[in-house]
Amino acid sequence: MSQEEFIEHILPLKNKVYRFVLSYLHREAEAKDVVQEVLLTAWEKIKDPNSIKSLDAWCMTLARNKSLNLLKKKGRNYLDISDQYNLISRDANPLKQTENQESFQKIKAIISTLPQQQQEVIRLRDMEGYSYKEIAQILKLEMNHVKVLLFRARKRVKEELIRENDYGISHAR
Amino acid sequence: MESHMLDKLTEKYWQGEVSDAELQQLKEGLQKAKLSPDQLALKEYLAFLDQPKEEDVLGKDFDHMLLQKISKRKKREIIPLNWRNMAAAFLLLCGLGYGINWSLNQNVETITEQPQPAKKTLEGNLAFNEVRDALLLLSENLNQGLEHSRLLGEFHKTKEVLELTKDQKDESN
């Protein structure tokens, strides 16, 4: 594809891909390298961006494969998502801001205790907004399986949040 | 929004079955003061998901570096190296190599045919010698036979002389 098409269609995906890759690798430098590889591969392999139904899903699939391969090569395991989502509480009230930040940390901690596939699904669906079909394509799963994983993940998040809100005890640690 | 409707939508969300429009209704309904533990947990979770992420994590430097690499790769792309071209080149080389090897073998076989007249001469000499020896042996035996006949003749002559001498002696007595 042309450089103009790359700038228009592929480059805007960089941050999304970066967050996704960082959730696997947990190292910024490595994640940046993988993102670079993914985007350059997209430029080389995709002749016409309009011919791909979901460029997002295409890039995320490649990003996931490269991340998992790198983890395997380095002998590392899939890690939690605690750090790559630098969520910013935009509440004007400082007290509310602090409360929100604590709540975000709590939810991140809960999600980090989920099994790998549930984490992947909840991140792609709830945080990045992908459809079930796209998630199935990225994770190479059946769509029904994706729905089951999301149900289990959300149920666990709900139960932990209710428990923490009721007793003020973190069971996620 | 009525309570039972809010309960229904909350349940649908945790089961992963809520549509985008229903999600919007749910967010509005969760703004009311009195909520169940399920609804409180959901409100907290949705607030977590709705907070904006850090916008451009990778920055303009990353874009610039990536576009530079693309420009360099474009210049280097004289012959597109893909697996089909490489496979075809490999097969062609193998074919050429096989052909050259076959041609060389043909030449070697032609050279190895040339020493046969010399081999025949050697065999001829050997045969001649054998025949000569056989003929010599025969001739020796032939010569022996004649000699034996001559000796036999001499024997008969001597015998006749002895008998004549004996007869003459007997007459004198």
Give the averaged pLDDT of chain B, no decimals: 79
Quaternary structure type: heterodimer
- The stretches of 5 or more residues of chain A where confidence is low (pLDDT under 50) are 80-84
The SS-based structural class of chain B is mainly alpha
What sort of overall outline of chain B do the alpha carbons produce when their principal axes are compared?
A: rod-shaped
**Helix vs. strand class of chain A:** mainly alpha
Would you tell me the overall average pLDDT of chain A?
Answer: 85
Distance between the termini of chain B: 187 Å
Largest sheet of chain B: none
Instruction: Report the count of strand segments of chain B.
Output: 0
Whole-number radius of gyration of chain B? 61 Å
For the sheet with most strands of chain A, the description reads: none
Helical residue percent band of chain B: over 70%
Morphology call of chain A: globular
Instruction: List the total number of helices of chain A.
Output: 8
Q: Give the count of helical stretches of chain B.
A: 6
**Number of DSSP strand runs of chain A:** 0
Largest protein interface? A-B, 39 and 32 residues
The N- and C-terminal alpha carbons of chain A lie at a distance of 48 Å
Briefly, what is this?
The complex is a heterodimer of chains A (173) and B (173). Chain A has helices at 3-10, 14-25, 28-45, 55-74, 94-112, 116-127, 132-139, 143-167. With 173 residues, chain A is mostly helical.
Explain this structure.
The complex is a heterodimer of chains A (173) and B (173). Chain A has helices spanning 3-10, 14-25, 28-45, 55-74, 94-112, 116-127, 132-139, 143-167. The radius of gyration of chain A is 18 Å and the shape is globular. Chain A starts with a helix and ends in a 6-residue tail after the last helix. With 173 residues, chain A is mostly helical. The model of chain B has no long low-confidence stretch (mean pLDDT 79). The termini of chain B are far apart. Chain B is rod-shaped. Helices cover 82% and strands 0% of the residues of chain B. Chain A binds chain B through residues 3, 6-7, 11, 14-15, 18-19, 32, 35-36, 39-40, 43-44, 85-90, 100, 103-104, 107, 125-127, 147, 150-151, 154-155, 157-158, 161-162, 165-166, and chain B through 13-16, 37-38, 40-42, 44-45, 47-49, 51-58, 62-63, 65-67, 69-71, 73-74.
